[in-house]
Design a protein that fits this description.
The protein has about 180 residues and is mainly alpha-helical. The chain has a domain of about 120 residues. The protein contains six helices and no strands. It starts with 13 loop residues before the first helix and ends in a 33-residue tail after the last helix. About 20% of the residues are buried.
Length: about 180
Amino acid sequence: MNQATNPSVDTTNHWQEFTGTLKERLSGPCRHPTFVMYFVGIIIIIGGFGLLEPMVSCWVLGKLKPDALPQALVSATYTYFVAITATAAVDLILSYHQKKYLLMFFLLGSFAVVICAFFAAICKPSTAMYPSLFGYVLALLLWWVGNANNANLLDTPVEPTAPIGANAKPSGDLTGFST
């Protein structure tokens, strides 16, 4: 069992640290075009492509009656935002070096998304759009915050020594090779 630190010695304001971390994770990725383009292009547009199916079924193909469209959109929305939240939470949890407050933020945020999906599923279409919209925005926020430090999505300069692994000298020889 872990021992707690002596509260009289610990002068860290964890609330300030938490809000600072959130501010950095919200604003930091904006400096990286790759992150923003991935978020808009993949997460919102391609990931949300399933939201187009009910509209196409209603307006283009005529398979869905117009009065059934709101319920179909709500259903497509809450299945989408729960999936986005789940992947963001798993990505963050698997990077176990995160601060506990960030993990707890994700746990509470994910719980709120599930509650939104539950209410969207049981409410009438006219009222289900409110928990759906809130859950959708919260899911996107969680994805953004959870992936803010994802090195694969950030534009980082390539060091000239990258192919050889930093400042190390390459080992081996070219014996047996000719030009």
